[in-house]
Amino acid sequence: MTIPSSGTLSMATIRNEIAPVNGSYALGSLSRTTCRTAPDGMGEFYGYTFGFSVTYAILAGGGGGGGASANNNRNAGGGGGGGGNLFGGGTTIYKNQNYGFTIGGGGGGSNSATGGIGGYSALFGVAAYGGGGGGGGNQYWNDNGTWGGSGGGGGGSGWGSGGGAWNGYPGGNSSEQYCGGGGGGISSAGTGGNGFNARGGNGGTVGGVTGAGGGGAGTGEGQCANWNGGNGGSPDPQEGSGGCCCSSAQYAGGGTGKGGGGTGNANAGFGEIRSATPGAGGLAQISYPGGSRGTDGNFWGGITYHIYYGSGSMYTYC
């Protein structure tokens, strides 16, 4: 609440405005917190506002795609990774402060086992959990996809189960012996592997990035997954997809927070290439009306945006 601009002003009124950061009743201490220098006077605080409202969104890293281990059947497919968890909200922040944040990286892809879980992202004491890793396997055994924040990893070949999701949608099951399921996304579940490539779940929108958090693709029996990334958010559907054994074109999880794609096992005698792709890293966004009130702000359309793709901090101006 803004301090009155006229009338009698008490130390309690000044202190209550600044108390979320500094609860002292000493005028000098409150003045330093608000970037004022000596000599100190209560009149300097007439009409002063210490805090301002912001909205924010955080996206965790996507899970990595899983892979099929080498065996006599080269068509086995791994599951796709899950999309990273998205969380948004509103809060009040204060001037002359540093606000730290953590941005999760994408989980690593595995050519012969379950993919890695995406890293968590955190801002303002709230955490978003990374996407689940896609399951690995072959025609004799399977790994289930792992749980994820918003997208669960797709199930590996050999009837592996897709991973569940704390927020968002689960990964698809492997419904045939040689086919991995697609990873879940922010907006929809991954599809099941049924002899063809399994598409990852759709993403959402965060930080101006449409389709963030889409699940990666799972590969199918004898199929290429290059055009089966989590759709919904990228002009290029290859982003977030995985490489099958029949193509040299591999794509990492694309469009922020997407899961990586799964892969089948390669046959070196045929010159085949396999590469389960990693998930993509997350982001944090802070926004509010009007001009920039902190470092790294970009003003557009009457709104200031602070968008970060790596861990760090934002300083708010005096």
Structural class: mainly beta
- Helix-strand pattern: HHEEEEEEEEEEE
Helical residue percent band: under 10%
What portion of residues belong to β-strands?
Answer: 15-25%
Largest sheet: 5 strands, antiparallel
Report the mean per-residue pLDDT as an integer. Answer: 79
Q: Which strand order does the major sheet show?
A: 2-1-8-10-9
Number of domains: 2
**Weakly predicted, low-confidence segments:** 223-237, 240-249
Number of strands: 11
Radius of gyration: 24 Å
- Quaternary state reads single chain
N→C terminal distance: 17 Å
Total number of helices: 2
Report the principal-axis shape.
rod-shaped
Word description of this protein:
There is one protein chain. By secondary structure, the protein is mainly β. The protein has 2 domains: 1-49, no CATH class; 52-318, no CATH class. The protein has helices at residues 11-18, 27-33; strands spanning 51-59, 86-94, 98-102, 121-123, 126-128, 204-206, 209-212, 283-289, 298-300, 303-308, 312-315. The radius of gyration is 24 Å and the shape is rod-shaped.
